[in-house]
Amino acid sequence: MNLSNESAPETRATVLVVEDEAHLAAGLKLNLELEGYRAVHARTIREAASQLVEAPAIDLILLDVMLPDGDGYSFCQQLRDSGHYIPVIMLTARSAAEERVRGLDSGADDYLAKPFALPELLARVRSALRRRHWQKPATAAESALGTLSFGNARIDFDTHEAIAFNKPVRLTQLELDLLFYFAQNPRRVLTREELLEKVWKLHNAPNTRSVDNFIVRLRKYFEPHPDKPVHFLSHRGSGYKFVPDGKAAP
Ligand code: CA
């Protein structure tokens, strides 16, 4: 699949590589360019921040964790806090579960532990860019899943605009992805494992509170009474169920 660069819009995307190891950065840049992407490089968080200002057309960030002027987690968190929804793949030298979870909790969309295999990196780049594309339906026919309405909420997956109780809600990419997955699977119990695999792309994930933390946030945004949810229901500790029209009164 994806052999032709002309037919795949995501292969013309611009990728910002934030990496201070010169050899690794050069290798990444070269291989991305060979795949047909445009690649720009930043050695520090400071350089990355100015690249984002100077080249606003950046479609994806590959973000190293240990950088000379700070760590990738805080930079990612800053991006999300300031409303940047660019997909971020963290490149971490640490494969410990809590470090991966920390990356995802900071708003990253994916992570890759060093040393990684190039084909896997490229696959994850394609995947992150594809997910960005399915949130921007190209035609009216494809836009059936473009918006989600339930209770007092309306979410537009195309523009990333969400309204709840007549007020705008700012959602991160992962919150949108999670909502999108719920919207595709209404009234079905989704286990934490399934959500971690389908939404976070984490396989054989460790026991993590990540999913629960995200559910807490969704309830806070969209439930009339977050402590008595009617849309995002817990299911006997195993997972969650999304009920668009609300749980029936007992
Ligand atoms: Ca580094």
CATH superfamily of the largest domain: Response regulator
Low-confidence stretches: 1-7, 135-144
CATH architecture of the largest domain: 3-Layer(aba) Sandwich
Which strand order do you get reading across the main beta sheet? 2-1-3-6-7
Specify the number of helices: 8
| Rough outline | globular
**What is the fold named in CATH at topology level of the largest domain?**
Rossmann fold
Outline the biggest β-sheet.
5 strands, parallel
The small-molecule ligands in this entry are: calcium ion
Instruction: Give me the strand/helix succession.
Output: EHEHEEEHEHEHEEEEHEHHEE
Overall mean pLDDT stands at: 82
The CATH top-level class label of the largest domain: Alpha Beta
Provide the β-strand percentage band: 15-25%
Termini, distance in Å? 50 Å
Number of separate strands:
14
Structural class: alpha/beta
The residue fraction in helices comes out at 25-40%
Number of domains: 2
Would you mind describing this structure in some detail?
- Helices cover 36% and strands 22% of the residues.
- Strands 2-1-3-6-7 form a 5-stranded parallel sheet, with helices on both faces. A 4-stranded antiparallel sheet has the order 8-9-10-11, with no helix packed on it. A 3-stranded antiparallel sheet has the order 12-14-13.
- It has helices at residues 22-34, 45-54, 72-81, 97-105, 118-134, 173-184, 192-198, 210-222; strands at 14-18, 38-42, 60-64, 66-67, 70-71, 88-92, 110-113, 147-150, 153-156, 161-164, 167-169, 189-191, 232-235, 239-242.
- The protein has 250 residues and is of the alpha/beta class.
- Calcium ion (CA) is lined by residues 20-21, 64, 66-67.
